[in-house]
Amino acid sequence: MEDNLEQYSFDFHGQDPTIVAESRDELKITLGEFAGPLDLLLYLIKKEQANIFDIPVAKITNQYVLYIKLMKKLDIAVAADFLVMAATLIEIKSKMLLPREPSEELGEDIEDPRQELVDRLLEYERYKSAAQMLYERTTVEQAIFQRGKIDTDENNAEINASVFDLLNVFQKIVARHKDEVQMEIHREEISLADMLKNLKRRLLEFKELSVLAFFEEMHTKRELVTAFVAVLEIARTEGIRLTQSSTFGDIILRAS
Amino acid sequence: METEFETAEEKTLRSPGELVAVVEALIFVSDEPIPVKLLSEVLDEDRESIAAALETLRDEYENRESGLQIREIAGGFQIATRTELHEDVRKFLKTRPSAKLSLASLETLAVIAYKQPVTVPEILEIRGVQSASAIKTLLEKRLIVTKGHKETVGRPMQYGTSKDFLIQFGLNDLSELPSIEDFEDLVA
Description:
By secondary structure, chain A is mainly α. Chain A has eight helices and five strands. Chain B is α+β, with helices and mostly antiparallel strands. Chain B folds into two domains: 16-93, Winged helix-like DNA-binding domain superfamily/Winged helix DNA-binding domain (Arc Repressor Mutant, subunit A, Orthogonal Bundle); 103-182, Arc Repressor Mutant, subunit A. Chain B is built from eight helices and five strands.
């Protein structure tokens, strides 16, 4: 049997239902703009001109459930949080219907089953108002402007060293060590991961690192290559800046 | 090789007027609001002198009805256009007001701003909804940052507001937010 939905008129905050792209893979239809079940509840209470300290639970629950049903009818996915609230309301409603048992100790206040909900609504309302305040602040702030960007070293592309400059420095060192006698000593070759860790640690400690000096520390060609790859990797992933103050000069790594 | 000059660095002595001028120049070029401490260090002047220079500067701007204002924001000083002039400025820059935050994001931000550091379950308790997408948006806009883990079961992540939050909402520090008690119940 069909629900007689024609009878129910909801005033959706004066807005027409709209389709909203909530995130990249979700399209949601919003009926009015309710930020959550508490927001909807507050709206319903206001609409009924009810006293928040004495909520007519039965009435409000019915209205709330109707709203949820309407959303389902319109094939709108109802967020789980709304359903949780519906269940809470129904629970409170049934508690209100049960005859209240006299407490064992005379004069003890029996807890109103609505109390927790009222407290939550009041607290929520404060933050809703605070959100409004923040919104108003943004409006004021957007009327104030600062000067445009100034050309500094930070955004001056010419000073930033390129991969080719890096390669140049690398080649220089390889050439320099070409003629040295390499003694074949069996040592543990340092892995890329360890090299990266070492590099990161030094940058954290000293804030700057000379690429030339770093490469000079390497003992074998393989280590040198690992060092080179490590520098490339760290520049790519950690956003480290490479700057070169003179043509074909040393390159400095800087934590940005 | 010896030189004729003293090897020790000579401190430039500035007149108050010169100090005001150089402070103004530095605030002008700084990308971010510049704190007194930094001005004091860079210019090698004590903080009282800097503070006095700033006072003078602010008065000057106000007295001549400047199109600019000196503001104290996010713990530092900044030069910006006067609010009243926004229409003409916007027309000139050909910008439109940037996309405003959604209601859900603003609410989440309000909770984080007032209750920081705060965890997602704590936010859920107040708002009554999962705030995952709002938190994602706020992180992307750099309005909130993570502030470590809460040392309870599950070690949930905690969130707080960022410096960008202060700047975007025109606040010098968090104490400038109106007290949450001020947001009285409006329903009753």
